[in-house]
Design a protein that fits this description.
CATH topology of the largest domain: Alpha-Beta Plaits
Radius of gyration: 21 Å
Helix content: 25-40%
CATH superfamily of the largest domain: Sporulation related repeat
Number of helices: 3
Strand order of the largest sheet: 6-7-5-8
Structural class: alpha+beta
Distance between the termini: 31 Å
CATH class of the largest domain: Alpha Beta
Largest sheet: 4 strands, antiparallel
Number of strands: 8
Amino acid sequence: MRHTLRLKIAGTAAALILTANGLNAQNQTIASKGQRVPPEVSAEKSYEVMAEIYAAHLKALPDYQIQLGFGTLEQANEIMSQFQSIRENDSLFYPTKELKLTFESPTYRVRLQFFADRIEAEKAFADLRTLFPSSILLKPGSRTIN
């Protein structure tokens, strides 16, 4: 019994075919852009191919972000609560955007993510800059496999 998972990457489809018999290299086949990898290819190599496909998929996703502020954990929590209180009072205040708290030594950073393109990000940045004076528009390319 085989399961098929299709990923759409930058307008092209890559199909990964995995068997239900486990991650056994003899029973595993991968199809990518119409090419078949022989079953004797190791499972490690198959994972590398899947990781490359996933990384390409992440690069194709929009990844403009706006950093609303940074500082200690208390300062970051204050920024997040300020943003969420505005969102609670105004249902149109970026309802589909995720607010994320990250730690990059030595500070915590509060980011609003992800915007589809630079125009959308620039418009949002102009609006948010008045409410969050220390906000900055981050350059794309910040998505990684974690």
